[in-house]
Design goal:
The chain has about 260 residues and is mostly helical. The protein has 13 helices and no strands. The chain has two domains: about 190 residues, Serine Threonine Protein Phosphatase 5, Tetratricopeptide repeat (Alpha Horseshoe), CATH 1.25.40.10; about 60 residues, no CATH class. Helix 3 runs antiparallel to helix 4. The chain starts with a helix and ends in a 5-residue tail after the last helix.
Amino acid sequence: MRVSFRCIFVLALIGLATYSAASQIIPPSKLMSATDPVDLPRDSNFSIGSNQIAIIETADRLLAQRSYQAAIETYKQIKEPSARVLDRMGVAYESLFDADDAIRAYKQSIRIDAKNPRTYNDLATVYDQVQRYSEAERLYRKAIELAPDCALYYKNLGTSLLAQGKYNKGSEAYQHALNLDPHVFDGHGNPLMVMTRNDNAEMNYARAGSCARAGLRDCTLVYLRKAVSEGSATARRIATDRDFSTMRDDPSIQQLFQNEH
């Protein structure tokens, strides 16, 4: 399994997520640890005083404690915020469901550091929230270009494509994610986006199929159960779907469809 250090760092920032009965997917908190090192501006000629370092440390602790508004107000006291500081402000705004300010902060971060894939991913998640899917897709692909070994970016791209009804392409993105990390669907949330019941059901069916192609039985069963309960998976559909060709005879999978007979 090939997972880059940069991607591992991103995954460490992602919190657990849940989704509501209204089919909303709650965004990952993307918090850093309060013990993360202070991020200084990239310009080596820039001298930052101890007071500014203390402000950054305080803001980071507030963000880690989920005191988002207080973190934002503290970050604003930094005279010349670095790309990382602006990215963290974006995280705080996003956590407060303030999409406009989150987009603004992430874009400012990218203008300073155009080589950080995490910020492209973070900005894409906000565009997903406001259903600007084409922009989100472009940004996920940019993140993948910069960090091609990061399963998380492929997974987020897949979810965004499924929300657009691009089920085949979404499934392919999920397969790439699983090839890089078989556990990519474990414990990581999706960008917040409002999805119809049908889209949410198709997302779970696509995930089940991707897991089946990768030979991941437990993963297949988890998402197939959801797809069955949501109506997107039927015995007839599974029987003709090549993704399930090696697993459709599994007793646990057959048991899911007993009520259809």
